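can u pls check wat happens w/ adenosine-5'-triphosphate
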Amino acid sequence: MITIRDLRYRAFAIDALDISPGITSVIGKNGSGKSTFLKLCAGIAEPGSGTIFVDTLPPRETDAGYVNEFPDRNILFSTVKDELASPLRFRFTPCEETGHMVQECAERLGIGHLLDRRMGELSGGEKVLVAFAAAVIGRPRVLVLDECDSHLDSGRCGWLEGAIRASGAMYVIRCTQQMDTAASSDHLLFLEKGQVLHAGTPGEVFSRLADTPFYPLSWRCTP
Ligand SMILES: Nc1ncnc2c1ncn2[C@@H]1O[C@H](COP(=O)(O)OP(=O)(O)OP(=O)(O)O)[C@@H](O)[C@H]1O
């Protein structure tokens, strides 16, 4: 369980929230605090006060993979191969094993053809795919994806759902502007002005958003 208690960070406030294993989607208006919440879950931001624990450890002491909303902000190294290898090298994985894992991961995620390219030359969607691969290559316990789908074509968006499930991460926390994608999650959080206004299953949360633009299009079409 991810447990959050009395958390305060800038204008962001959560008194008590428990997140069960599975895929949790975070939705809400622009500026409602989705990226801030994701950064706290990934350990990129530290609470000003209060606590957040992934099972028994704070996020910074947990294996976490993170994809930033902006593709260029994910990049640490100049080539795709080095970018993908970096999470393994930071853990002192032996060179031969790293090389093998990079090749296997790139091929499995359909970016084997990009391995020798320079990061700066990739398209926005290609950068996101490499960032996703770098986030999952070390099999993280927590996978945090900030609008990972916003640069991907519709075929890749569908593919991403399977890749997220196949990542093996116990907790996936992602935000998306695609409500049909959010509807396929296990859990849903609706944020407003830095607070969790609704939390529950997609059915529970969307039932409270029926008259808003956040209601999934495919659910509207259902007779
Ligand atoms: N580094 C920062 N310093 C100060 N305020 C910030 C910082 N980053 C974000 N904010 C503010 O915190 C609030 C929440 O921002 P956040 O990026 O979490 O929203 P969001 O829901 O992800 O928005 P969007 O859907 O537009 O990406 C916004 O008002 C934003 O201006």
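Residues 1-63+143-157+173-222 form a domain with the Rossmann fold fold (CATH 3.40.50.300).
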